[in-house]
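Weekly sync, protein design subgroup
Attendees: M.S., D.O., the rotation student, P.L. (late)

Item 1: inverse folding check
M.S. brought a backbone from last month's batch and wanted to see whether the design step gives back something sensible before we order anything. D.O. pointed out we never logged the input encoding, so this time it goes straight into the notes. Structure tokens as presented (203 positions):
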């Protein structure tokens, strides 16, 4: 995919070198002929669509300036205080990303910033993988039925399992951000073992 326009933001705690990172990326991107857009105050600026064009002139003279010219915040895309309540702004952020016509987003910060950036792409990635696996599974099932590997009754049983799988996917998506990661992994492990034990008992 050809890149024409990229966004950049700084998130998390303020620290030395953020302006140097903005300048380094921005100068290199402009050198490739890309348009560079900066978002104010981390992910909050992306949620509120507060952006500024970063030209060569805007990047000049910031190398030795402390902090970040874009500002920063610790706001998380999925838990952002808005109007006195905590809201999931992920969809709004993705919508603003697309409205700006960006081909990529560079998130400068630490581990928390990287984790929050992953949340933005996870939904699109998960949807793409789900669609791909569904198509492959249907094609393979039809092939197995045609080859006589398993009967039509088996295929119907697999089709009947789609609904509980879809429900489980939705529940898991809602819970994995709210539960402790260790607890969530253990719960998933117990469910997998239980389902496997059930299959063994059936056969």
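Designed sequence read out in the meeting:
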């Amino acid at each position: 995919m050809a890149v024409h326009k990229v966004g950049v933001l700084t998130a998390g705690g303020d620290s030395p070198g953020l302006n140097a990172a903005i300048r380094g990326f921005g100068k290199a991107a402009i050198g490739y002929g890309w348009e560079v857009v900066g978002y104010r105050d981390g992910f909050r600026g992306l949620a509120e669509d507060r952006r500024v064009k970063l030209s060569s002139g805007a990047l000049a003279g910031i190398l030795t300036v402390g902090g970040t010219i874009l500002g920063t915040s610790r706001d998380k895309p999925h838990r952002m205080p808005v109007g006195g309540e905590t809201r999931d702004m992920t969809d709004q952020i993705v919508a603003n990303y697309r409205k700006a016509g960006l081909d990529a987003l560079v998130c400068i910060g630490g581990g928390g910033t990287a984790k929050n950036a992953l949340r933005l792409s996870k939904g699109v990635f998960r949807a793409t993988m789900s669609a791909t696996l569904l198509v492959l599974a249907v094609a393979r099932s039809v092939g197995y039925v045609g080859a006589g590997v398993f009967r039509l009754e088996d295929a119907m049983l697999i089709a009947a399992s789609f609904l509980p799988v879809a429900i489980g996917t939705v529940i898991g998506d809602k819970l994995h951000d709210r539960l402790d990661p260790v607890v969530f992994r253990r719960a998933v492990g117990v469910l997998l073992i239980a389902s496997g034990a059930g299959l063994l008992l059936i056969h």
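Discussion: The mean pLDDT is 81. The beta strands are 5-10, 35-39, 51-53, 80-82, 85-87, 104-108.
Action: P.L. to compare against the previous round before Friday.
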